[in-house]
Amino acid sequence: MNNLPSLRFRALRLCVIFLFLALSIAAQSIPAPKDVLGWTPGEDRKLASWANVVEYFQKLDAASDRVIFQEIGKTTMGAPFVYATISSPENLKNLEKYKQINAKLADPRTFKSNDLEAKKLIAQGKTIVEITCGVHSTEVGSYLSSMRIAYRLASSNDPDIKNLLAKTIIMLSPNPQPHGLGIR
Description:
single chain, alpha+beta, four-stranded mixed beta sheet, 4 strands, 52% helix, globular
C-alpha cells in the first residue's frame, strides 16, 4: 500500500515522457524546405522551380494542421496559381465563419447605424492578412522565403507564433506571377 504513491508518480512520469515524445515526433514530421528541395532557400546559386515550390507547399499542407494549400486557377501559361492559408487549427476549422465576418465588416453599408453589431463582429473575428511574395523576375528572395515563412508558422511551438496564429489568418501567395521567375 505504501508503494501506491510511488507507482502513481511513475505512471504520471511515463505519461509525460510519452506525451513529450509524441509532440517531438509530430514536430519532426513537418517537412522543412530543405527536406523537399535538397537545399535551404537562400543558399547561393540555388533557385527553386515553380513546380518545386508547389510541391513543397503540398507536402506542408499534408503534414500540418495549420496549413491549407489551394490551387485557385491557372496562369495564362497553364501553371497553377496557388496560395496557402496558415493559422491555428481551430481557426482553419472555422475559416468560412471568419471570411463571412470579414466580408460583413468590409462593407460599410452593413452598419449604417448599428455600431454595436460591428463591435460584436470585430470581437468574434480574426485579423486576415494577405502576403504576396515575388513580383519581378529579378527578385527571387521573396518567393524563396515564402517556403521558410510557411515552415516556421507551420512547425514552431514558440508561444509568440502560437499567439499570432490564434489571432490571425494568413493567406500566403508564394508568387502571384510564377512565370516571371523564368524557371520552369
